[in-house]
Design a protein that fits this description.
disordered N terminus, 224 residues, elongated, 11 helices, Regulator of G-protein Signalling 4, domain 2, mainly alpha
Length: 224
């Protein structure tokens, strides 16, 4: 079930510090068509003098993480949370979300808020996978195989539409377990994704204008 496509594009050494500023600025954007084509299995070089830093593995997750690391994060102004939900949220609950990721994900409203934030970072596959695993563990034995296959195809296999960032060995292990699934088949991968969200996305969520605005709204509602 596993198929991995890895390609390295070797380039001559090129000192970025000597580049014309305009040329350096455009380097990242010239790589984009190359990266997209490589993700779909085609090689279309767009620049013949890329810095050594661009010798990377061309696979969906690695590419997305790479581009997120070189492009300054800009929080989307389009993140919205239902006004009606704001009115119903207790200020105490929203405040507790800052105590731990566990408390944030303990309620439906917390899950919805975190999902909206992750969508702005193009990483909502993480919470979608985590929630799918939570649901999977509650599944009756005779339905495990169907759900395991669905989770594998959607989040784990190499061409998955919502592929999560897990290591090769975990991915390979899940491929085997999905053939004869048990309630714990995805536990290791779920734990890995949880830690990833806890260390990476969750701290940014707490510092985001999205969360601060939500806190302001529920505080104002509590004073009415």
């Amino acid at each position: 079930m596993e198929h991995s496509l890895s390609t390295s594009h070797h380039t001559e050494r090129h000192d970025c510090s000597r580049n014309n500023p305009r040329e350096t600025e455009n380097t990242h954007f010239n790589l984009l068509p190359l990266a997209i084509d490589m993700h779909h299995g085609f090689f279309l070089p767009m620049h013949n003098k890329l810095p050594d830093i661009f010798i990377i593995t061309f696979r969906g997750v690695e590419l997305k993480n790479y581009f997120l690391s070189i492009v300054p994060h800009i929080e989307s102004p389009d993140i919205k949370y239902s006004t009606s939900k704001d009115a119903m949220l207790p200020a105490e609950e929203v405040t507790k979300w800052s105590e731990s990721l566990e408390k944030l994900l303990a309620t439906q409203c917390g899950q919805d808020a975190f999902r909206e934030f992750l969508k702005s970072e193009f990483s909502d596959e993480n919470i979608e996978f985590w929630l799918a695993c939570e649901d999977y563990k509650k599944t009756q034995a005779d339905c495990l195989h169907g759900k395991a296959e669905k989770i594998y195809k959607e989040f784990v296999q190499n061409d998955a539409t919502k592929q999560v960032n897990i290591d090769f060995y975990t991915r390979k292990d899940i491929a085997k377990k999905a053939q004869d699934p048990t309630p714990s088949s995805f536990d290791e991968a779920q734990k890995h994704v949880y830690i990833l969200m806890e260390r990476d996305s969750y701290p940014r969520f707490l510092k985001s204008t999205f969360y601060r605005n939500l806190l302001d709204k529920v505080d104002c509602n509590s004073l009415k």
